[in-house]
Amino acid sequence: MSKITILRKKIDKTDEKIKELLFKRAALVKEIGEVKRGENGKIKDQEREDEIIGKMENEYEKNIFNTILKESRKLQ
Questions:
Q1: Residue 40 in this model has a pLDDT that exceeds 90
Q2: Which residues have C-beta within 8 Å of that of residue 41, sequence separation ≥ 6?
Q3: What distance in Å separates the CA atoms of residue 1 and residue 30, rounded to the nearest whole number?
Q4: How does pLDDT run across 47-66, given as a tens digit for each residue?
Q5: In terms of residue numbers, what domain contains 56?
Q6: Which of 28, 43, 59, 70 is most buried, with most CB under 10 Å away?
Q7: Do 40 and 10 contact (CB within 8 A), yes or no?
Q8: Exposed, middle or buried by CB within 10 Å (0-12, 13-18, 19+), for 59?
Q9: How far apart are CA 2 and CA 51, in angstroms?
Q10: pLDDT at 60
Q11: What are the start-end ranges of the H helices in 1-76?
Q12: What are the strands, taking DSSP E only, across the chain?
């Protein structure tokens, strides 16, 4: 088996873990959306989003989490 095939198999396993975590996150996001609608109806919380993005160490992570946050707002 070639080195690239081995590395791709590792990526596939990592992708499965990422998908599982995204599914868990989506369930929590939906719950938060229900709470927000009951409290004030405001979905976007810029302060919280800034807090999350502020924890990212580089542009790669920031770009990914900006997309996650955007999609999370849609779920809410």
A1: no
A2: none
A3: 43
A4: 999 999 999 999 999 999 99
A5: 3-75
A6: 43
A7: no
A8: exposed
A9: 42
A10: 98
A11: 3-39, 46-54, 59-75
A12: none
User: Of 46, 15, 33, which Cα lies nearest the Cα of 72?
Assistant: 33
* pLDDT over 90 at 75, yes or no: yes
Q: For residue range 2-30, what is the model confidence (pLDDT) as tens digits?
A: 999 999 999 999 999 999 999 999 999 99
Structural tokens at position 18 = 């990422």
CATH number at residue 31: 1.20.59.10
Do residues 75 and 30 touch, judged by C-beta distance below 8 A? yes
Look up residue 38 and give its amino acid. G
**CB proximity list for 56: less than 8 A, separation 6 or greater:** 62, 65
How many domains, in total, are found in the chain?
1
The tokens of 34 are what?
Answer: 């229900």
